Amino acid sequence: MSHHYLFYPGCSMESSAKAYYDSLMAICGPLDLELEEINDWNCCGATEYVGISLVPAYALIGRNLALAEQQANGTRTVVAPCSACYLNLAKADHYMRERPVLGEKVNIALAAGGLHYDPGSLQIRHLLDVIINDVGLDKVRAQVVRPLKGLRVAPYLGCMVPRPDYEHRWSDAELPTELDRLLKALGAEVIDFPLKTECCGGHMTQIGPSTAFELIRRLIHDADLYKADLMATLCPMCQMNLDAYQGETNRHFHTNYHMPILFFTQLMGLAFGKEAKDLGIGAELVSARAALTRIGVEVPPQEEVKPAKPKRVKQTGLPMPRMPGSEEEEEA
């Protein structure tokens, strides 16, 4: 039995989370998942825009919902693998229903582009929810040809997926069990990880690095304390923060953590017998090579990162209007 859904990939799946996209595509076949990408989708605005200007922010998100509603053919479920995208789409649908005035304003904005969205007409679901509750763990177990036996994994969902849970899809807001159950179905040894829904810092790495580094340190420290071989996540932002900023966190606190951060879909692909390179494994900054050797997986060598060429600095500043009496005007 195949499962067909509309698919909202989000911006990160084309860039920083390409490994998430590649590994998802690799497991769709074995799971009979059909993901139909929403035509002409746009960025969901991440987390900041909603705090800056509410109506334009929800119009930006709502455009994707309107496009999905137009495209709906046999399914009215939109699947989002990115946690921020999932939350934004779900929030827009929820608040357009709950606050009719907001919904009306959003639709006035959408009308400028010939679009309209009827809130409540679509179901917004996260990829993990669909795999657990639609595909089912029996189907997952049936595809496992290389169990992750002996691999100790810390399940990390991040803060945005299980709360606020508008449609009551998750087992618990603080300690949901869905990712644990999936990893166990793959044969992994899942550690008890109390911080599984704690924040990774989001964009604090750009705003207040010392705060971000402390949040990252807490998560990696606890995973290390529980002797995890790696952490499994389902959020591009979480993966990027814990992987890309782990080195800076080590330098900040004079620690020496080496905790690989992989997407849960990459671990599913490995258990299904897929090659590591086809799952984007090897592209992470903190290498998973040593951890995956425990289950007999050979990780391709990481490509040497060449230092970036220095950018050419323009000698002139931004174009500015010439003021009366200025030197530029006199020279002209």
Question: What would your notes on this structure say?
Answer:
With 332 residues, this protein is α/β, with parallel strands linked by helices. The protein folds into two domains: 3-126, Up-down Bundle (Glutathione S-transferase Yfyf (Class Pi), Chain A, domain 2), CATH 1.20.1050; 143-293, Rossmann fold, CATH 3.40.50. It is 43% helix and 10% strand. It has helices spanning 18-31, 49-52, 54-71, 83-98, 100-111, 127-135, 137-143, 178-185, 204-207, 209-225, 236-244, 246-253, 264-271, 289-293, 327-331, and strands at 3-7, 33-37, 77-80, 123-126, 152-156, 189-190, 230-233, 261-263. Strands 2-1-3-4 form a four-stranded parallel sheet, sandwiched between helices. It has a four-stranded parallel sheet with strand order 6-5-7-8, sandwiched between helices. Helix 1 (18-31) links the parallel strand 1 and strand 2. Helix 3 (54-71) crosses helix 5 (100-111) and helix 10 packs across helix 12. The longest helix has 18 residues, at 54-71.
